[in-house]
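PocR ligand-binding domain-containing protein structure dump, as promised
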Amino acid sequence: MIKEYLHIDKILDLNKWKRLQDSLATVTKLAILTVDYKGIPVTSHSSCQSFCQSVRKDPELLPYCQKCDSRGGLEAVRLNAPYVYLCHFHIVDIAIPITIDGKYIGAVMAGQVKLADPWNATDLEQIATTKNESQHQIKLGELQAEYDELPVMSYEEVVKISNMLFLLCNYIVEEALNKNLLVEMFEKASGKDETVNLSSILPGYTIRNIESIKKEMTNAIADAYLNNSKAESQCSNPVLQPAFEYIHAHKSENISLKQMAELCHISPSYFSRLFAKETGENFSAYLARLKIQWAKQLLEVTDMPVSQISDELGFNESGYFIKIFKKFENITPALYRKYYKAN
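structure tokens r here:
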């Protein structure tokens, strides 16, 4: 049921999410932390600045930091948009809500930067203010060197990055949810005599169109990682062009020669002759070689299990995929990945 998935740690592989979070922190220069809908961290901090680490270790100042986190998250939920604000040390922070169908499941807390142009951000709210200004000034003096090392960016940069993170995080979470729901649906559908009530799992979908949805998702996963130029799907014979375009656009399908011949409106025998003339090899050999090229890219740039790569590229079962891979590369997919990453 969809309610079971409204917990961020059940939707995402948090180990992979943390690696993405680390990369985003490096690229954006922001410190980033992910929390659940209760405000409880589900990841450790990525690139937490030393100044903020020191402040959070102070038992008298930590409550101010926690108040900023709590209030920032609440404002982001209320707005259903990134909320940019100032902490009690006038440092910029951002709360980015993660929602599914309007339901709040968590947030990405980012920031720990100073503004290069504070005059352009006079409308930013300082969420927490101290009742003991002298205490803050003393602490700031003690940590001045660390404060000076905080990253600096313009207000415009902060806003653009916060919007990008909002779109990216929610897109990734929704895609993960869709895939989890599909897995659940297929597991239920595999029961011997049980009738699956799809409306309780995927509202709006029926058993008739679920296979096409699954194919679209697997194609999207493969395409997200594979570097394919438009030229690779071009051929010199316009009669065969629909087949080449279909092959590159439907990487997760087990495509047959007959299917491609029908797509090109010619007989299978004529298609076979034209295809061999165009590529220098028969259809099955060409398709297998192309899929092994794609498989090598996925092994190089992702942590996908070999069995998942086999599924993403339309092989009937992983044993057959390993056999074909070894035929072309003289090595198994697992060893190929091991040697590639060792070099």
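Residues 155-189 form the longest helix (35 residues).
lmk if u need the other ones
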